[in-house]
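## Example record

The block below lists the input lines for one assembly entry, exactly as stored, with component labels intact.
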Amino acid sequence: MDVEVTLTVDGKKHQLVVDTRTTLLDALRERLGIISPKKGCDHGQCGACTVLLDGRRANSCLALAVAHQEAQIVTAGGLADGEDLHPMQRSFIKHDAFQCGYCTPGQIVSAVAMLREADAGWPSTATRDLNADTVALDDEEIRERMSGNLCRCAAYANIVPAIAEVARG
Amino acid sequence: MKPFRYARSDSVLDAVAMMAETPRAAFLGGGTNLVDLMKLEVAAPDVLIDVRRLTSTRIEELPDGGLRIGAAVPNSDLAADRTIRRRYPVLSEALLSGASGQLRNLATTGGNLLQRTRCVYFQDVTTPCNKREPGSGCSAREGFNRELAILGWSDACVATHPSDMAVAMAALDAVVRTLGPKGERAIPLTELHRLPGDEPERDTVLEHGELITAVDLPPLRFATNSRFRKVRDRASYAFALVSVAAALDVADGVVRDVRIALGGVAHKPWRARRAEAALRGTPPTENSFRAAAEAELADARPLSGNAFKVPLARNALVRTMLDLAEEAR
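Predicted structure tokens for the full assembly:
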């Protein structure tokens, strides 16, 4: 069933007609040509499709486009400031935090939002003191908080240091 | 995915009224389970009524000292809430042990309670499943049932409820508030989900069109000493094989009060009332905890592939209680 929707992606408004069944991921990739979010499992298990919805990371494969018209949507492609890459993107390059690169946009978007969550004092299941005021992102914390992003090349050994460098300033 | 109409309404009342007129409609919350089940064609609603903006996203103090959690509070906000962390740490820990950061941001409190079983046969439309297609048979009974129930199952269905959050809420005596065609109801969380019996297609006692609007947590002073322990195949991002939610109050060297619920063992969060009764008034020792766990699991009937869950549940319960006893010292 067709509906007209407005999606705000990387600061730009788009009007389009989609079938109600269209996920946000398919609307971005197939209809708007915004291909930095990747389709991995398409069932919310791999994290390759991660985007920000109003600053929070979310699986765009499980979000219906029609239900997220009010959201500010940010993709990996929208993180850079023109030619200036986001610090997380630079750190992934510096640490060679990928092999094939397919999961990388999702990893980077997820990592950017994960640092904000930690800054806000959100605990994780790896946090020893649930009531602590601040969160120290050691490697165990980073691994736990990034467990929703799989890398089939297993580049984790470089992903964790790439994120840690940005986290620890 | 089957075609559907997407609908919004201006109020909870309108949404409930709209649902009452539409037998094959479904409420849409965060969509993390429902949209996936629609892709798999396990669910095929003809109308989706989006309620994510209708119910409350606030956590409010109640006059009796408890808390009211709006049905639309995302799992991530509930886990991070400072009051929840301080007063009901078991709930925060349960939420943080489930899903991923991305999913917890989308998933809502009401939706988490209503997620469906992850039994592989339920999610595979090419196989018989009494929950998905009543009367078609249970493929799991003699099939791949390693992750399924050891308590309270029936010949019709051996599925488990997948929520971690609900296990903590069962231990905390949470009350689910709903609005339906017949008005408002307050349902103890331990009575929201059903055992499968011969109607496994019904996960809960909710009627068609009944919407969860909030979950109330009653005051429980000793819940500050509460904990969630989850045992799973991976260190992170996996459903529970077995989980334990517990709170312990020790005074004068004996257990004054205790709350225990088990997850991953039944079609519903399993409140361990026998273990609780066995523990009250006894010293908080490993022997007491083991005897209580054994009393609770006396009726366990493991399936062909999950006998390991009986000692696993016993040991997880004992370990959780020992940790709490240490804290209470």
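The radius of gyration of chain B is 19 Å. The interface with chain A takes residues 1, 3-6, 28, 31-32, 35-36, 38-39, 48, 50, 52, 76, 79-80, 82, 85-86, 89, 92-93, 96-97, 99-103, 105-106, 235-237 of chain B (CB under 8 Å).
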